[in-house]
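Reopening this ticket.

The earlier resolution said the output was attached, but the attachment link was broken on my side. Pasting everything inline this time so it's all in one place.
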Amino acid sequence: MNQQYHAPALAQGLQILERFGQGTERMRLSEIARDIGISRSSAFRLVQTLKVLGYLERDEETKSYRLGSRVLSLGYAFLASKDVVEIARPILERLRDETGCSSHIGILDGNEVVYVGRVPSLQPVATNIRVGSRLPAHATTMGRMLLAYRSESEVKRLYGRAKLQRYSTRTPGSYEELSAQLAGDRARGYAISHSSYEQGIASVAAPVFGAGGAIVAAINVSGPDGAIARQIFDSTIRDAVCAAARAISSRLGYQALKGERRHA
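Inline output:
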């Protein structure tokens, strides 16, 4: 490297971001300083800059930092053709064939779920969702899964002061309602919707975990409500989605701890 054009602060900031991409979900300031080999005050300035720009987020409960949504925004184009989506695609295709429903994979960006992969149903009537579509996380099954495995402080930061838009009588309209719904989703390991967001559309979602154990995406299937008997949708279809999510997680290197329940 030509040292004449070297920017040490930029290099150190990128080193910090890289540390979070090596199986570490959260780090304290002291850990960041030690890993990068800089003083705590220097680490603080770098971390604060990355936080202001949206590349890092601070968890007030644990006093630690994690990657922010801006990092995900930079990676959308890459993610759409590599890594999670590439690994998930054959499994989503099989899921589509098994269920007859359109299958999708999405990630969280702020309070929205971004669709980064889609395998459309072969049936004449299919949900009209495109890659790149953004939907409200609190009202959708994939969004609920992505929020369910976030910290309480992060969800409260996103929704604690806002009145949530109701898209149906089943959509949570307040932080308290959403928090209760997410607790149930997390306990079950999946989220089901019958016309909660879009009238006449049924959906079921499950979480996808990375090698470090953090949630990295969610998948779902959706289709016209009533096209499949609700009893079948809420059992057989649900089980197929959960199995597909486990398969994707496994291929990403995730290994569930003994006794851990993250999928039904």
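Reporter confirms the inline version is readable. The first strand starts at residue 56 and ends at 59. Residues 76-81 have pLDDT under 50 and may be disordered.
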